[in-house]
Amino acid sequence: MSLLRRTIQAIGLGRGTTPATDGGKIRSVQMKFPTLGNTADGVPLMQHYGFASRPHASCDYTTVAMAHDPGKTVAVASNDQRYQFPLAEGESAIHDDQVQSVHIQRDGIAWTDKFMNSITSGASGFNFTDKWGNSFVTGAGGVTITSCTGVVTVDNEIAGSSEGGTGASFSGVIKSLQNVIANVGAAQVGLATHTHSDAGGSGNSGPPVPGT
Fold first, then answer.
1. Which DSSP letter does residue 7 get?
2. Alpha-carbon distance 2 to 198, whole Å?
3. Are 179 and 188 in contact (CB under 8 A)?
4. C-alpha closest to that of 52 among 30, 21, 73, 17
5. Which end of the chain has less Cβ packing within 10 Å, N or C?
């Protein structure tokens, strides 16, 4: 028998009749070989180190019969025609049957879960967007936070400092439903509650009184 013929006979194409097993030292699968009409049990599923998958039933497999012995067949590659991920030339992705993916694109990397929350990276920075349309975007111009309701809620505090002590700054109108406090402790002054020194007479009053 020629080497080419023996090689061809050693390589087969099977279709899983059950999902791949889980647990143990190696996953295995029961598969049927359409061209031969036979079924093989417990075919070991070889996978690359660091990458694991558990294919569904009806997944296609490329198999190799070690030493041309059908009893020593192993699956070396798998493909499921039902779950294909669109790719541009040169791209790659890790994905599942729920459209969850890590997509290495031509212009960056995109992470997406089944709830359509996504994180993308690219030359302009990072963009986190959830299924409601809330987003956190970074770029050369800074950080932009967008809320689907138009309201951004901060549970604790916003702390800002920069060289020279200018601190945090805001553009536009700042509205508070409660008091606005400047300074801390005995030196604090409330925007809605403070009193002024030297308020008598005409003209401008003195500065706000600390502790008011």
1. H
2. 109
3. no
4. 21
5. N
Whose structure tokens read 């040169």? Answer: 90
Six-digit token string for 14:
């099977």
Cα torsion at 162, 167, 171, 177 (round to 10°)? 150
The model's pTM is: 0.73
Per-residue pLDDT of the chain (212 residues; tens, 9 = 90+): 565 555 656 889 999 999 999 988 999 999 999 877 789 999 999 999 999 999 999 999 999 998 777 788 999 999 999 999 999 999 999 999 999 999 999 999 999 999 999 999 999 999 999 999 999 999 999 999 999 998 888 887 777 666 555 666 777 788 888 888 888 888 888 888 888 777 666 667 777 787 77
Residue from 130, 155, 160 nearest 145 by CA:
130
**Is 40 within 8 Å of 73 (Cβ atoms)?**
yes
What is the rounded CA–CA span in Å between residue 78 and residue 144? 43
Q: How far is the CA of 137 from the CAs of 55, 89, 119, 120, in angstroms?
A: 36, 28, 10, 10
Helix extents (H) in the chain? 3-10
Distance (Å, whole) CA 188 – CA 211: 5
* H/E element, 128: strand 125-129
